[in-house]
Amino acid sequence: MSGSKHSQAMHFHARAGEKLRNPILQGALRKAKPLFVGKRAKGVASLAEDGLDFDVLRSTAKNIRNRTLADLDAWLEIFEERAVATGAEVLWARDGAEVSRLVVDIARRHGVTKAVKSKSMLSEEALLNEALAAAGIRPVETDLGEYIVQLAGETPSHIIAPAVHKTIGEVEALFAREHGRPLETRTSADIPAMAQEARAVLREHFLSAGMGISGANFLIAETGSAALVTNEGNGRMVTTLPKVHVVITGIEKIVPTLEDFATLMRLLPRSATGQSISNYVSLLTGTKRDGDRDGPEKTIFILVDNGRAKLLGSDYQDMLRCIRCGACMNHCPVYFSLGGHAYGWVYPGPMGSVLTPLYTGIENAIDLPHASTGCNQCGAVCPVDIPLPTLMHRLREEQNERGLRPWPERLALKVWGWVAGKPALYRWLARRTARYLNWLADGSGRIRIFGLAPGWTAGRDLPVSSGLTFHELYSARKKT
Amino acid sequence: MSAKDEILGRVRRGVGKDDFAGRKAAALESLTGPQRGPQPTMAADLVGRFRAKAEYLSSTVASVAKLAEVPAAVAAYLSANGLAAEAVATPDVGGLDWAGSGVDVAARAAVDADKTGISGCFCAIAETGTLMLLSGPQTPATVSLLPETHIALVDVSRIVATMEDAFALLRAEHGSLPRAVNFISGPSRTGDIEQTIVLGAHGPCRVHLILIGTGSLP
Fold it and tell me: If you average pLDDT over every residue of chain A, what do you get?
């Protein structure tokens, strides 16, 4: 699969260590986490003011997504027919490479030398910017976070806050270099001025680009429309000003009706940023109509598989419900310890730990399903109820079944499985271990240096029990 | 095999069901009677709700009794904010007596140089304080997008409760969707530098709403 070519997911362990030792990154993450968590909590709590219940909404949303996936072949055909009827063109791409080929072809056919882009994670899967640049077409990211990341020559580290890993000082250095002005000392009071600076630079690009490229938050089958949700208004610019608009989106993004879309819109912004609605929500249908004074003359949808179809009917189908809100990573202790780049591919956090192995190959992302504390914060906040920890467990099982785990781990699990099947032996060993650990702790209740696995106690103490096993305590309690 | 056939083939195998024609017919049938999800319960005063939510989203709100008073209200807003008395307007509201209030208004699509854009709206949504604008020959989308200041005229009789109600109105009055349906909820914003929210990203920095009427209309 093409996706594996640029995946760095195999280097998760090495990168994790590097990220933990990066004080600038750690500072940026420490600042961001409480903001994300607090905003989402407030947004979800606001539902109750209108007599809405998060759990009820979420099960409705889950049903909408499940119902669509259950007959996705039919919904895709309906979407295509209706989109074509409104004057749009619909193309299909098996993988990322095909996406890039199609977009470059479209750009060449229309004599495009510059394309403005609204945020599209799928274009990251396809390495579209590299392909465009190689073909002599300049891609300009216009979401402020994506613009910053593009200037830095990096990839987004978060699906809705691409530059969350960047401090104001780093952004200032990029702007000074790119906008050809002297470097200044910046504090948070200067953020509005910096946003205005980017606005002015990007406005020129919006006005002069021959092509706009966007993703779609949803495709609406009923009307053949793309739904686009943004706060900055760059999505509107990209889909209104250039003569050609290309929508790149996954085949799983379909919802049947406008009503279904309205339900999902009560959950998506709240889960992402805590907003009851994002500043701009656009439904884009077809092209410029007779008499219209603005709008693109050509609208082309590219419906992309790139690993999605094979999840249908598999143990991982639940993952296709994902609406890309980012709540899972915003609540993940692993994500906020490492940032998004440690995950090595397009999607970070829990959803990435599931999607990266599935889209780029289980053998190419061995550590990711283990990048979890099992706390299920991600599953608890997911607006479409994806059992993320369960899916990670399935991936771990599959790794084990396919012999992809390191041999000491496989041996250890085999031994444990054998012992666990012999209750007497298990109890005897558990007793010995409890006593041994208790002896190591030497009455303090904590082990400061655990010789067998020193990594465990390098940054924290290992708490131990009183020296009795669960079975012993249980029998003692039954007797009293 | 074409990419489409190959992808649809994979999807069909994954879906794992026969009778494609029957399932597609059932899907199409389900589109004719769309079901609403859980609906919010709100106080009956939709105008008050709309106003409060719009202000919460950093829009400013004024009200006038009738349409003829709009040009004076626009002139007052522009002068109070130190903005030039000139604007681009969507042609549907271009015919008001702007000159009478000393505002130089051009009815057309917006260009980059336009500082203020004046538009109407198809309807407004009380639940979230949102405007719903449709693109069209008389309502070019750029007017609510390019200028730094967007002034929107909202007839209070066009304030509905929810997005679903707005869609019902759209189906009843237009049948199909225009090129762009734009839901606008306050000035554009970004939080991409250190998660600090700043108003005025790519879209307008200021959104001013002028409510028209008393809300007693049916």
Answer: 94
